[in-house]
Amino acid sequence: MSNSQTSGPSGGVLIVDFGAQYCQLIARRVRELGVYSRITVPERALFTFEHMRPAAVILSGGPRSVYEHDAPALDPAILHKGVPVLGICYGLQWLAQHTGGLVTPAQSGAEYGRTELAVLDGQDLLAGCRPNGTVWMSHGDKVAKLGPGFTVLAQSEPCPFAVVADRSRGFFGLQFHPEVAHTEDGGLMLKNFVLGVARCRTDWNPGNLVESKIAAVRELVGSTGEVVLGLSGGVDSSVAAVLIHRAIGQRLHCVFVDNGLLRQGEREGVEALFRDHYHMDLEVVDASERFLGELRGVVDPEQKRKIIGRVFVEVFREKAAQKRNAKFLGQGTLYPDVIESVAAHGGATSTIKSHHNVGGLPKDLDLVLVEPLRDLFKDEVRALGRELGLPSALVDRQPFPGPGLAVRCLGEVTREKLTPLRAADRIVREEVEANGLQRGLWQYFAVYVPQKSVGVKGDARVYEDVCVLRLVSSQDAMTADWELLPLPVLKRISSRILNEVKGFARVCLDISSKPPATIEWE
Q: Would you tell me which of 207, 345, 455, 484 could form a disulfide with 505, CB atoms 3.0–4.6 Å apart?
């Protein structure tokens, strides 16, 4: 199976991922400045640099120690390309090690969490930053000595080299993480580096990518090639479908697999929009019995995801085989899908959860991948969808996980559990959207917790399960905060669920942020 994706404009920022869990946050922050960013692994950094010709390089954080014999290997030649370099956390330590400095275990100098940063030199990188702001530290090693040419721009109590620079060579380093919201002036520091130091062009606008994406699909597929695409009805696959359809018309064949784990009205909505409105070639496959049969008795969350991914591939593969002329496979894969599911360089980045549209496809599927959204974040896909003219009800809808309600139904997944869960989810969506509260939320849904709880209904004692409300705000799903709806709305949701839905004796509210929790319960 081969892959193809469109690279962004040259002159952007190349980000070398040393295994940072939030490396894509750096990429997002750069793109929010109107500058294209691209993440690469250390082993391919020089190759990607020559292909991309970036205006700057950012070295990410990472969980390893630079002095370990098997630490991620980045060729120091990257420092001789004549562009500014910013090292973050591990990236700073790597930069110090390869410019004559010394890195050692931190011992008493280790820092974790919020720390006050004292600015000594408020020029260029730190221009406009508060003199004693809060930054987010997370490092067990430290720079013990700087190499020739470096000066200290800021420090914290246990970290004398919190911000350093060799201005003559355009090298800068931060021992903390500017990409996270906990660092008060982190966004300003990245802006100062990207726009001030590196003077990058601000020509990145995902809404303007329609024609270039269409051209890339046409070039890849050719004038006679046909594409088969698994359409879920979510934002990603929908935008990918409309984009590919715009490029090749009826040579796109969409397959919608009803796995029995959908929200209420999902299947009917997909058929109405894509078959009736866009007039696409759409085949709907009811495989609910097959999926639920495979999930019978399974309680482990990761096993659920793998089963759903496997069965989806099996069903999809059977249908794709019927499209004899289709040699291409369309997918709505996004940047976060790739980075969350695949270790950046063979294991340093932890795998959070499986995505069936990334890691579950068999190598012998013998189809060329068409993934026009693979280099985009969710908000950028929404912008692209708006430019394509998709209805706001679809473009702005909350994300829905690939495994569907299975990861919101704890324990074994059965029809008996899915029925009340689906009804509760409908109530949550209706009340949130009726009050116009969805614009401030990333996701809002119900979770089925099979924990019996005593209740009273109609003067009779009941012993039923628990429904949990999950309401979060986020920019990219990598971090998220729980949100509280107005009390009258919460009361109405709770009242409706307990009165209209059979199976729940109690409604609870999840007030966990990510991290340490995840957005989905499984």
A: 455
Q: Are strands 102-105 and 141-145 parallel, antiparallel or unpaired?
A: antiparallel
Q: Kindly state the DSSP code that residue 110 receives in the 8-state scheme.
A: -
Q: Which of 89, 129, 200, 254 is catalytic?
A: 89
DSSP secondary structure of 16-54: E-SS-TTHHHHHHHHHHTT--EEEE-GGGHHHHHHHH--
Q: Is 182 a residue of the active site?
A: no
Contact at 8 Å (CB) between 449 and 288? no
Strand partners of residue 137: 113, 176
Q: Which value, to the nearest 10 degrees, does the dihedral of the CA atoms of residues 52, 57, 58, 62 take? A: 70
Threshold 0.85, pTM exceeds: no
pLDDT digit string (tens) for 214-262?
999 999 999 999 999 989 888 999 999 999 999 999 999 999 999 999 9
Q: 398-408: buried (b, 16+ CB within 10 Å) or exposed (e) per residue?
A: bbbbbbbbbbb
Distances (CA, A) of 110 to 57, 97, 115, 441, 445: 26, 18, 11, 36, 40
> β-strands 13-16, 56-59: how paired?
parallel
Active-site residue 200, yes or no?
Answer: no
CA distance 314 to 167: 56
Catalytic annotation, pick one of 179, 266, 371, 380: 179
295, HSE (Cβ side, Cα atoms, 13 Å): 34
Angstrom distance (rounded) from CA 480 to CA 336: 14
The first and second tokens of residue 516, run together, are 């340490």
Rg (CA), the chain: 25
Which domains, from first to last, does the chain contain?
Answer: 13-197 (3.40.50.880), 206-395 (3.40.50.620), 414-509 (3.30.300.10)
Measured over the CA atoms of residue 373, residue 374, residue 380 and residue 382, the dihedral's sign is positive
What are the φ/ψ torsions at residue 169 (nearest 5 degrees)? -105, -5
- pLDDT tens digits, 361-370: 555 667 888 9
Instruction: Say whether 177 is catalytic.
Output: yes
Q: Residue 263, Cα to own-chain centre: how many angstroms?
A: 22
